[in-house]
């Protein structure tokens, strides 16, 4: 099966949903930030501090490209992976893209107030920053998504079951369209 990529803002649940989804579908699981850390031999926080966001985005793009070459894989991406148009293109062509949404308040609760592991939220008013980034990124997420799942107030098992259901619907719709051709 084609790779499944989870996209969405920080704290939307991409990693935990991705891991459980892969387990249920018996697919491999990779977390893009973890791959980036292995590749750069630094944590995400260190990469931002020592090399800057541009360098991070460059490694992120290379890593995403590599990860999407492998079939039968669930990939949880970082929240900013849709910023570059080359990433959006490759996500669209190489994977089924699942967009997990959550409101700014929920996101803040989930990521907490510290920017310990999320350098972009290490600011005076993380809520404002979440709102500002969400406004910029929402159209980009929507632009690549095949399936959108609102995670507000939903328990992880339910989110994963909903994703599986939607992926099955999409696959059977695509099969029908292929048969008509
Ligand atoms: C980022 C999200 C993070 C990580 C980096 C930048 C972003 O990943 O890639 O801190 O730009 O939104 P998560 O979405 O997994 O927190």
Give an account of the 3D structure.
The chain is an alpha/beta fold and 181 residues long. The chain is 59% helix and 13% strand. It is built from 8 helices and 5 strands, in the order βαβαααβαβααβα. It is globular. It starts with a strand and ends with a helix. The relative contact order is 0.19. The mean pLDDT is 94. The chain binds shikimate-3-phosphate. Residues 10, 14, 33, 44, 78-80, 118-120 line the site of shikimate-3-phosphate.
What's the SSE pattern?
A: EHEHHHEHEHHEH
Q: How would a textbook summarize the main sheet? A: 5 strands, parallel
Compounds present? Answer: shikimate-3-phosphate
pLDDT < 50 runs, ≥5 residues: none
Percentage of residues in strands: 5-15%
Global mean pLDDT: 94
**Please, how many helices?**
8
The largest sheet has its strands arranged as 2-3-1-4-5
**Count of extended strands:** 5
């Amino acid at each position: 099966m084609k790779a499944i990529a989870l996209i969405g803002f920080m704290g939307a649940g991409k990693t935990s949903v991705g891991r459980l989804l892969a387990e249920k579908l018996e697919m491999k699981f990779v977390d893009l930030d973890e791959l980036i850390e292995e590749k750069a031999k630094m944590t995400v926080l260190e990469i931002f501090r020592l090399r800057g966001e541009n360098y991070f985005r460059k490694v992120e793009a290379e890593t995403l490209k590599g990860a999407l070459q492998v079939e039968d894989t669930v990939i949880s991406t970082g929240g900013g992976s849709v910023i570059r148009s080359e990433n959006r293109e490759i996500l669209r062509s190489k994977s089924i893209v699942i967009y997990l949404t959550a409101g700014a308040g929920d996101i803040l609760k989930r990521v907490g107030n510290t920017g310990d592991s999320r350098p972009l939220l290490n600011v005076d008013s993380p809520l404002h920053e979440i709102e500002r980034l969400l406004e910029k990124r929402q159209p980009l997420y929507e632009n690549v998504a095949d399936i959108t799942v609102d995670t507000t107030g939903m328990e992880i098992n339910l989110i994963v079951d909903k994703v599986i259901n939607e992926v099955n619907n999409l696959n059977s719709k695509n099969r029908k369209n292929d048969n008509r051709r």
